[in-house]
User: Fold this.
Amino acid sequence: MKLYNIKDNAETINFAGAVKQGLGRGQGLFFPEQLSPLANVDALLEQPLVPRSVAILQHLIGDEIPQDTLTAMVEQAFTFPAPLVKVDDHTYALELFHGPTLAFKDFGGRFMAQCLATLRSDGKITILTATSGDTGAAVAHAFYGLPNIDVVILYPEGKISPLQEKLFTTLGGNIRTFAVQGDFDACQALVKQAFDDEELKAAVGLNSANSINISRLLAQVCYYFEAVAELPAEQRHKAVISVPSGNFGNLTAGLIAKAIGLPVKRFVAATNANDTVPRYLQSGDWAPNATVATLSNAMDVSRPNNWPRVEELCRVKGWELSDIASGMLNDEQTEDALKRLFAQGYLCEPHGAIAWDLLNKERGKDEVGIFLCTAHPAKFKESVDRILEQDVELPGPLAKHNAMESLSETIAADFAVLKAKMMG
Ligand SMILES: Cc1ncc(COP(=O)(O)O)c(C=O)c1O
Assistant:
């Protein structure tokens, strides 16, 4: 697989290089040089998740990873299902929260850990990542205990749910966590500064694990195929997929799936009040506001990192950006959506509820709607219990970590402070 840097097209790299390096020169994102269509999508859709995912990843990655190695990696990473649950005759929930940390990030995080373990050269590496909630847990659990790999996770202090926080700040061992006095954008800015610092990069063998890493995106492509595969055959060409979006990695993966032949009619980019993208798609003006805290905190991002990939994909495929439907819900509307969805018999959490409501507004009469449920409702227990007047049960892993002591350290949103901690 060959990739190029979107900001500096002369910089090209293979898959292994892109996985290890994360970002290109000038903080540019890597993008695949080729996204050719898969040969027989209908036959692929008949296969189970793991062999189908191996075929998709082999098609994208090429011969850099032998098929038996790739099969073993996918078998280790995708150890849980992604069921498509019927909500009504024309609406389905794709539940992506059946992995060990109960969020869709388990797909990308676990496949990336497999990639790094397989493709790494000798020497120590440090995974540095910023999380707005769920990446931290997925990455921490995927890498926990792996030899010669340290993990450093930054998250905005007080701005992620207490349960989300407990899931990754209680591990210890090779996992260090910092609560940054700032918002998620400040955490992302620190990560970017770290990757621009040659001294730090060399000293700790820096590597990134947030959704800018191409291996994570490729893993996510696989569950879009799973969603369509689980539809009744007569509905497979009618799907509109609504994606709760923050950093826009998830939507990028969906668009890559479409680019290689998955029959999806349209995507809906669903956001909360941090609605830079829906406003941009309507007005053509890129005008990020200050990030505001919302109920769907994992989407509290006003400068989405992956957006340049969405634009690049549309450019190379000749798609119009305006073909992407979009919309936003404020917190009041999110609460209302969560209640209406619950009244229909489906227990969700704020991120999925936003995607569901905006899907309903967008789906045409003869279309089938799929909304992505990116986290287990218990991960947002405080708000879900309050809004729905329920007592959502904590699944096993959450209950265990919730009872443990957080090992996190609070730091200022100051790169010098972070660097000193990491070098020390
Ligand atoms: C529960 C949940 N939903 C949605 C998102 C947004 O996904 P993306 O950043 O890929 O747009 C996240 C990201 O952290 C998340 O944790």
User: Anything to note?
Assistant: Residues 103, 132-135, 211, 244-250, 298-299, 351, 374-375 surround pyridoxal-5'-phosphate (CB under 6 Å). The domain at 83-99+214-392 is CATH 3.40.50.1100 (Rossmann fold).
